[in-house]
Amino acid sequence: MLAERRHQMILRALRSGGPAAVTDLSEQLGVSAATVRRDLLKLEEEGLLTRVHGGAVVEEGDQPFAEVAGVRVAEKDALAVAAAGMIEDGQSVLLDIGTTAYRLARQLHGRRLTVITSNLVVFEELADDTAVELVLLGGVLRREYRSLVGFLTEDNLRQLHADWLFLGTSGVRPSGQIMDTTVIEVPVKRAMIAASDQVVLLADAGKFPGTGMTKVCGPEDLDAVVTNAPSDSATCSVFEQAGVKVVRV
């Protein structure tokens, strides 16, 4: 396998799954651990990742929607089913950008709900469902990420109110801080939080700690977390100590 191809696969694995060990990358790529270490050194020199003990992590840069849509689908669907069960008919629901929110939208067909979103894939999923009142926020189009962002999106959110926000993340720090990989999405997420009565974080185990260089919010801004992280996760304990309900699936 060419070095360039290996580098692309390493970065994709780190972006979708968080920190990865040299041994895991070696097995995935079918090359020696020594080769992986040389690749990681090269990628670190180029500023594309950070080496940590036994492996590496990507701390910045987001990934196009299409690249992550097929990652950990079963886990995201389990979170989506649990989240859908929290919503009562007649309520209003804000759905964040990202693939987990899209999986939740798939669970809302036929429900008498108002769904508000800047996620174009959510919009496309529910556009033909006449049971759902669908509100698409305005904004600047991010084509590769299938979302709308910017001051127009934030201004729209200031005019709206939602019973629920289902928030996505690229990473959850051990302190309970919710992170994102790109600065431009963060103001929209914060505006969504301000517009909502109940804020629920959807975060599969791969998001602990995941990636992200920009803080979205802290545990004090959350009402619940839906996750498949291990029950002994220290971060989940931080959430519970902060009064956040942890729903395990």
UniProtKB/TrEMBL annotation:
PROSITE patterns the UniProt entry points to: HTH_DEOR_1, HTH_DEOR_2
Domain of life where this protein originates: Bacteria
Membrane-spanning intervals of the chain: none
Residues of the HTH deoR-type domain: 3-58
SMART domains according to UniProt: DeoRC, HTH_DEOR, HTH_GNTR
InterPro entries documented for this protein: Carb_Metab_HTH_regulators, DeoR-like_C, DeoR_HTH, Tscrpt_reg_HTH_DeoR_CS, Tscrpt_reg_HTH_GntR
UniProt keyword annotations, A-Z: DNA-binding, Transcription, Transcription regulation
Pfam families found in the cross-reference section: DeoRC, HTH_DeoR
Identification of the protein by name: DeoR/GlpR family DNA-binding transcription regulator
